[in-house]
Specification:
Length: 409
């Protein structure tokens, strides 16, 4: 092979750039995970960078080009899906399985394949597929617009005040950031910190100056709080002291879980082995009831008036679950669903995926074969049975305080 050909060969040995890092700033609202981790010199993100490099080095060579491309992507969905895949690989290895990636599906004609096949003592025991349950595009777009606004505020020179942002509504249209900056700059230039402090001593918080505006459905109120003399002029501290939304952008997580299972259940035909779908739900607010509703159907309480005027209550199932309809089980090729909640590099020390078994699976996966927490459902009574397990942090060897705290934490 010639020297020119050698130079053209891609190098997949590292994820992050080998550069000198001195940047200790906070992450910008619109900044991708990769871009921020790649430049930060703060100890907690150094630790995250080193862990990702270690896990990537252990990942099989056949998948490294794809994983590296997605981890280095500025699309947050690509980064999170790749990180979840590397996490699952490392977790399953730590649980004692041999793990092969992208196994060939020789028993049927489809070219697609699950992410992993897990083996014990040389015998294949399980197929594992990872996916994300994500926010709808409308929610993502609204969050992006507000993030752009927050970045614009943080980038304004504001040496004498903290700015507290209250929001109401949703940014349904793009915000003209240049006009926002111009208005805010003019407002800030007219403020005097010492005068504001004097007014606040007499009238309290009611004397604090406010800036009110709206942008395509998003109403904002910015309150200026004078900084203490020792904090003034520090460019490393963000201008925004706090962001306080009147309402959170929510979406129907149970539908996302249901759709993720239904989509992945039909991809590969008859797999001949137990098959688990791992879903990383990118919503910090979802609860266990969302899992139950997504997998087994949304439940509601129905009130009926009895013959003697006594009301009777009963639980009614809508029959729209990924694993159960109104009259019969669904997607019995799926042995269980492994649910993670917003599992990203900063949360792996506190988040442990929960395995929920399909009570009517064609090929059940035995509870004793999995060391993490599990839930199973009695197919006759519907009773939920909990199976305690180890925390993922213990299995993976993640420090109890993760990521490593900064000096100012």
């Amino acid at each position: 092979m010639s020297a020119i050909e050698t130079q053209k060969r891609p190098v997949f040995n590292r994820i992050f750039d080998e550069i000198e890092r001195t940047n200790t700033r906070y992450r910008r609202s619109t900044e991708s995970s990769f871009d921020f981790y790649n430049v930060s010199a703060r100890p907690k993100f150094v630790a995250i960078r080193e862990l990702i490099e270690q896990w990537y080095a252990e990942f099989p060579d056949a998948g490294k080009a794809d994983i590296r491309g997605r981890l280095r992507s500025r699309k947050e969905t690509d980064f999170r899906s790749a990180f979840f895949e590397v996490y699952l690989y490392r977790l399953c290895r730590a649980l004692g399985f041999s793990v092969d990636i992208y196994p060939g599906m020789e028993h049927h004609a489809r070219k697609s394949h699950p992410d992993f096949i897990l083996s014990r003592d040389g015998e294949p025991v399980l197929y594992l597929e990872g996916t994300l349950a994500q926010k709808p595009q409308s929610v993502t777009a609204a969050e992006r617009r507000q993030a752009e606004l927050e970045d614009a505020i943080n980038q304004l020179p504001c040496p004498n005040f903290w700015l507290f942002l209250d929001t109401s509504g949703t940014a349904t249209e793009n915000i003209t950031i240049s006009k926002v900056r111009q208005k805010l700059r003019g407002w800030l230039e007219g403020l005097n910190a010492e005068q504001v402090i004097k007014n606040a001593e007499i009238r309290g918080d009611a004397a604090l100056p406010t800036f009110v505006d709206s942008y395509g459905g998003l109403a904002i109120t910015i309150t200026a709080h004078p900084k203490s003399p020792e904090s003034r002029g520090d460019s490393d501290i963000p201008t925004l002291g706090a962001v306080m939304p009147d309402e959170l952008l929510e979406w129907d997580t149970k539908d996302d879980i249901r759709q993720a299972v239904v989509r992945k259940a039909k991809c590969y035909g008859d797999l001949k082995l137990p098959y688990i779908i791992a879903i990383n739900v990118m919503n910090e607010l979802f609860e266990f009831d969302d899992i139950l509703d997504g997998l087994f159907g949304q439940r509601s309480v129905e009130l009926r008036l009895g013959s003697r005027g006594v009301s009777q209550r009963r639980i009614v199932n809508a029959g729209d679950g990924a694993l159960r309809g109104k009259k019969e089980p669904r997607n019995t090729i799926v042995s269980g669903v492994l649910i993670a909640n917003n599992l990203i590099p900063t949360t792996i020390g506190i988040e442990t995926p929960l395995l929920v078994h399909h009570p009517w699976a064609q090929r059940p996966f035995p509870t004793h074969a999995w060391k993490l927490p599990q839930k199973s459902i009695d197919a006759v009574t519907g009773k939920i049975i909990s199976h305690p397990g180890l925390q993922a942090r213990e299995i993976l060897g993640i420090p109890e305080r993760w990521p490593m705290p900064d000096d100012d934490d």
